[in-house]
Amino acid sequence: QVQLVESGGGLVQPGGSLRLSCAASGFTFSSYAMSWYRQAPGKERELVATISNYGGTTTYADSVKGRFTISINNVKNTMYLQMNNLKPEDTAVYYCKASRFPSWGQGTQVTVSS
Fold this sequence. Notes:
Structural class: mainly beta
Distance between the termini: 40 Å
Number of strands: 10
Oligomer: single chain
Order of helices and strands: EEEEEEEEEE
Shape: globular
Helix content: under 10%
Strand order of the largest sheet: 2-10-9-4-5-6
């Protein structure tokens, strides 16, 4: 059974940083690409970043390029999202997802506000 547990969210001021984690279990983590999504209030869920199964390829939404960095640790079965220079428009619930599996975690709230 695929399980994804996000953590690391919180309240941060504009310009601040957060590091999100996604602990995965129930599948062979190193065999699948992983992604971060986010959903702001009243908006559809959007793709933020994707990383290939061994981390060699990463892609980002234009809105976060140069500010966010996605990474994985295949020993710990964990994915990360380092978020720097956060903006109020980054406020959302952040979710992780493994490619080819429909499961979602519970998400972690990120709020950027002064």
